[in-house]
Records
---
Amino acid sequence: LIDGSEKQLEAAAALTGAERVQLKKVNVSEIPATAKALENHQVAISALPHSMSLPAIKAALEAKVSLVDLVGEAPDERAALHEAATEAGILIIPGCGVAPGISNICVGRGVQLLDETHNALIYVGGIPKEKTPPLNYQTVYLLESVFHLCLRPAVVIQAGKQVSAEALSGLETVEFPEPIGPLEAFYTDGVGSLPLTMAGKIKNNLFEKTLRYVGYAERFNFLKQCGLLDKKPVKVDDNYVAPFDFLARLLTPRLKLGPQGDILVMRVVVEGLKAGRRQQHLFELIDYFDPQTRYTAMARTTGFPASSAARMIAQNQLTEKGVRFPEQLFAGKHYEGFISELLTKGVAVTHKLSD
């Protein structure tokens, strides 16, 4: 385990309870030191803040160690390192979590199984099992990241062309079986590498919409319209405070995940033509908080894809080199092996075909 915080290292080691875990205090932003710590290993998993993702990849390149990364942003920057990774004889897999990650793999699988793809639609979100005010939402990761997801424009493909959509627009209701029930879905920026890897392969629409309990978008937009998500500081008496920072600090304890835990809900719809006939591939994943391990559904569905990919590299099941996105690796011949590996952890991705 490598981290810049000794306290975090000790907490993680205590959580694993494994004697073979070795701790190394390293500032991951320092590439030479990180490369030194990675030397003589087969594969590493990067579970770092977004700002530290690229330095970790560059350290892996220097150490010639394969890397599975949870961060999937800026796919062009990562794809540009393909030749360097190939020359180093290693495999880099960016964005190998739940979304991006499993969602991208399902899209890639559907596209491969069709002769002509018309639409690829991703619906995904983490929701609390128990609805609680004020947002009927509880955090399973950093609240600031939750805010940013609903503030930045979303990349989508409409009529085969890449465009920008306002976050929280495109609101619709999606029905799920009980105990989940109806959820609302709205555009968010989560398609990751798909516009790059699926370029020219989807004729009409590609998007990701985040799932929440009905009413979330209206409540969030109310906060936004009140200026409570602005980052420009305002003067309060003799102090300057950014409303965004104040709201995040205020809501973090109020939105802490309760003892009932969370649910991860994903539905991916890929539709088009096969042998001249309309076909729809429906992929679904519904996962729950595990009270025995205390792993949240979000942690399970984010961490297990990365650890499954790393295990497949270590066991020489993946012999590809370079920078490969999940949909490039696991939508084809490795699909069944990857899905089976997830299933051993209790993460079940279902696939149904309909005309």
Note: The chain has a mean pLDDT of 95.
---
Amino acid sequence: MTSALALMAMVAQSALKQLGCVRAVVVGDGLNALGLVRSLGAAGVPVTSAAMRAGSPPARSRFARFERLASKEGGALVDELLRIVAHDHEPPVVFLTEEASVISISAHRERLAGRVRLRLPPQQRVTALTHKAGFQHLAEALRAPIPPFVELRSRLDLPRLGKLKFPCVLKPAAKDYRYGARFKKAYVVGSPEEVARLYQEIEPVCPNMVVQQWIDGNDNDIFFCLQYAANTVDAPLASFTGRKIRAWPPHVGGTASCVAAPEVHAELSSVTAKFFRETGVVGMAGMEFKRDRRDGRFYMIEPTIGRTDFQHEVAVINGVNLPYLAYCFELGLPLPRVQQTVPRRVWREPLIDRWSAQTQGMAHESGFAGARVVDAWWRASDPLPWVDFMTRRLKARWSVLKR
């Protein structure tokens, strides 16, 4: 087995040399992009960090060369990518980390045809699945497990809330930066009257909202399945299932810590792959689920299309390097072996995980039993992003002390 793996590695390295070490271009400034840069760079892939700030975490990684972007969305992003790849002999493999970038690249895909390697679903599917109402309608048409919802486009839609059972979750129908600057990611609401009060304030900023029936459970009842699919006929090339431990803010926020969940992998990977096949989803994608504590059933919450998730690196530290697998597949190289690590490894963003634990009255290490914890920032092989992170924290504390 060891000799076979060594032979595969030698074949891959030989193929890479023949292709002139085709690079990967990672678009984004955040922790998500840093995880991608490390996942690819540690596998020997030449990586370019296409970011808006030279001091952003992925741009500071020793695994990446920095290229400045003027924008991460719209036609301007396409112009920037064409500039970056203008002198490449072979089209690089592009990885996206933000929804706005996916929507923009998808809408202008003809301009990038033959210039980059990036596998995306058809345009109409990208449009539908990056909008919560579009996802809901597709899931309902396919009889997929999804909680009922009402879409709000104006106050005239508020009477429709009577068909829902409360509590519910109020959230924007699509990513909206103006909304994010003023309001929480989502609100747990107990009645139609509470929705109406909140919506009165939100509507002038973001009128398109959804109200979805609440699934009873905590943050550790939220699971996710990450996949990379070549087509809509065969099984995904690789799949990884994880579970949140904590979120920030609790109950409605993004991942603060998470871990592999092999115990539910067979069920969730099957449901995810079936939905993506039936909706034409290919490339990098993921599905978030929540398990209802009342009946133990899993319900789809939202998909991720054409990009990696914030916590995508949890798959890599648990032995499933989806970005590198995607890179190898797109270049026709031998696919890397996928074998989950034992014991399981926890991916943790230390600051927001601490906030979440403190807010809920938990010990900071609770939920990690039997697993090795991996800091999202710290790597001995790539320390600068962690140094920057700690410097920012120390400056923030010093400012508080001075005040």
Note: The longest helix spans residues 384-402.
---
Amino acid sequence: MPSLPKDPLLVAARVVLTITVVFLIIGLVALAIAFVAVLTFARADLLRELGSAGSLTTSYWLVVALLPLLGGILHAALRFVFNLRAIVRSVDEGDPFHPENAERLHRMGWLVVSIYVLGIIAGLIGAWLVTSVPELARDKNFEFDLGGGGILLMLVLFILARVFRHGARMRDELEGTV
């Protein structure tokens, strides 16, 4: 039997998701290096810069707290992409209405919730730093946006998880009757 050609959309999705994984891992490594640097050899420079800007040492600890928050966002995004890659793989194999995909979609919904919450906390810290230490932000572009895209994505994922659960149940019932 001749093999069917690969779906170009699924091939493109796999390529884009693989590239995304690489960039997320690079971002996580960069944040880990920055975190270690801020706690060790770059600490004195950062404290001096914050002090010259008239900021409290609280600003230093907020910078320290911001890095793991951003790392948490990148880690959740990486897990999101891994779940999405597994769904794409199952679609490519011809079995999308598998109970595992419903669980993956459910996890992805919660990952979006965690990214959104961590993003709000990081955005509030960033906004406080920009307003309390404007000298640090003079050459940087800071934007704090609570767009509804994340909330909409979360709702879609939770609804799709239910659709996939129902589809998997229907498939199992159909296989049981045949």
Note: Residues 24 and 74 are 6 Å apart (CA to CA).
---
Amino acid sequence: PAVAARGRAVGWDYFQAVGHGVFCELGKGCVDFLKVAAWVCERTDQDWVLVEQDVLPGMGAPKESARRTREYLKRIGV
């Protein structure tokens, strides 16, 4: 939340906000993914879940980020 608030205050564009880490990996930010996971698991009208992770060049390894994200999702039951 602090990164997003700072970005709004100074007027970052999308790329600046992402570069400053506004879209962190699942489980490292402020979203309560346990509640999201519970909601997803209660649904009976879907067969899959899509997870998008924004990583710009120079921000790390997308493949490793995807691996960590998948491991996190498994830990919370998704």
Note: The first helix runs from residue 2 to 10.
